[in-house]
């Protein structure tokens, strides 16, 4: 089965082709560097860029895969959550394709796609704990099996990737800030012991809060005393400490020793190293090129949904800015085509 995957939930326009026998045939990602000047994603510009980039990206994805539109068996696209104007761009493209080639439209949840990007190379056993860390999300989810999710907690304010981007901006570095800070931190020392937000907070055991940490880091940057690399290292130590310790706590509480890390921040080298120090945990990360937003994770998750659950939706299924992963399977059932 050949599935086309479309991802436009934020600022990356991506189209990929997944073949259930041969794997990923193509994965074209067009990143909108235009947002660098704003230090964050500007919604109206993002939507316009998706509209402009969609057809050239689709064309390249088909060419790279050496197929034509009529070879496709189904079209999977990210319907939620994300920037609504960005989502609508991809969903409209997907609906138009589904209508014209008369092939099923398979909806995918963005967080689900990040998690199942880990399955593309090889299937992982259930249950597992998923830590999803990206520019828009910081969530801990217990995955009992595909489409059976328990939401344990998430950020009460800023997402972790967003904080990386803001700290990089305050340091006068580029966008996205995560990879730059990750690299810089390798040369730095922990000169300031920043607070570890909500780490020992019983009521918010599985919730996160990074906006106070962001303000504390920016205050130190503005003092102009410390070297950039030392600020980067001190900040990253606090972030990684919180992410790893909360995930390990959930593993102990639920008696699970399998962890799947996903989303853009799962590319972080220190996060990877610190998780791998837990020898009694089986920890999975996506390959680097599937950490940040991409169409391949959407195509694969769509394929999985169609194969295992037989789900496709009618053209009146709508994109939504918000929808928790545990609520998504139920929402799908009410729209089953
Ligand atoms: O998953 P993603 O592409 O978009 C969302 O769904 O939000 O994640 C993008 C985020 C950005 O905030 C970027 O700074 C961060 O992932 N990121 C990293 C690294 N690579 C990307 N953060 C920390 N360390 C990295 N190596
Ligand atoms: Zn994402």
Distinct bound molecules: 5'-O-[(R)-(carboxyoxy)(hydroxy)phosphoryl]adenosine, zinc ion
Q: pLDDT average, as an integer?
A: 96
Tell me the number of structural domains: 2
- Examine the secondary-structure arrangement and name the CATH architecture of the largest domain: 2-Layer Sandwich
State the secondary-structure class.
alpha/beta
Portion of residues within helices: 40-55%
Which strand-content bin applies to the residues? 15-25%
Overall number of strands: 10
Q: Do you know the CATH topology of the largest domain? A: Nucleotidyltransferase, domain 5
The gyration radius over C-alpha positions equals 20 Å
Class of the largest domain in CATH?
A: Alpha Beta
- Relevant CATH superfamily of the largest domain: ATPase, nucleotide binding domain
Order of strands, main sheet, comes to: 3-2-1-4-5
The number of helical segments is 10
N/C terminus separation: 19 Å
- Provide the low-confidence segments as ranges: none
- Judging from the principal axes of the Cα atoms, what is the shape? globular
SSE order, one letter for each helix or strand:
EEEHEHEHEEEHHHHEHEHH
Query: Sheet bearing the most strands, described?
Result: 5 strands, mixed
């Amino acid at each position: 089965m050949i599935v086309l995957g479309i991802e436009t939930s934020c600022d990356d326009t991506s189209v990929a082709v997944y073949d259930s026998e041969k794997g990923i045939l193509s994965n074209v990602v067009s990143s909108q560097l235009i947002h660098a000047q704003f230090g964050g994603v500007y919604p109206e510009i993002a939507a316009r860029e998706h509209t402009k980039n969609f057809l050239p990206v689709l064309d390249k994805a088909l060419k790279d895969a050496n197929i034509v539109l009529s070879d496709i068996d189904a079209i999977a696209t990210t319907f939620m959550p994300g920037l609504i104007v960005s989502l609508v761009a991809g969903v409209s493209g997907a609906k138009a394709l589904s209508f014209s080639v008369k092939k099923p439209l398979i909806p995918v949840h963005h967080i689900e796609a990040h998690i199942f990007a880990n399955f593309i190379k090889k299937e992982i056993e259930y249950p597992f704990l998923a830590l999803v860390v990206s520019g828009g999300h910081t969530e801990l989810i217990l995955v009992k099996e595909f489409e059976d999710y328990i939401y344990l907690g998430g950020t009460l304010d800023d997402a972790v990737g967003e904080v990386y981007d803001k700290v990089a901006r305050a340091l006068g570095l580029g966008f996205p800030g995560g990879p730059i800070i990750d690299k810089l931190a390798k040369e730095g020392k922990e000169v300031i012991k920043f607070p570890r937000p909500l780490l020992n907070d019983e009521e918010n055991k599985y919730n996160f809060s990074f906006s106070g940490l962001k303000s504390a880091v920016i205050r130190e940057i503005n003092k102009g005393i410390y070297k950039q690399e030392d600020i980067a290292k001190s900040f990253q130590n606090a972030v990684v400490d919180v992410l790893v310790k909360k995930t390990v706590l959930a593993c102990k509480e639920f008696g699970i020793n399998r962890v799947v890390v996903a989303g853009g921040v799962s590319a972080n080298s220190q996060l990877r190293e610190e998780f791998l120090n837990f020898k009694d945990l089986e920890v999975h990360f996506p390959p680097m090129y599937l950490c940040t937003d991409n169409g391949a994770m959407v195509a694969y998750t769509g394929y999985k949904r169609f194969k295992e659950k037989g789900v496709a939706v009618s053209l009146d299924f709508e994109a939504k800015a918000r929808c928790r992963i545990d609520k998504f399977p139920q929402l799908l059932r009410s729209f089953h085509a």
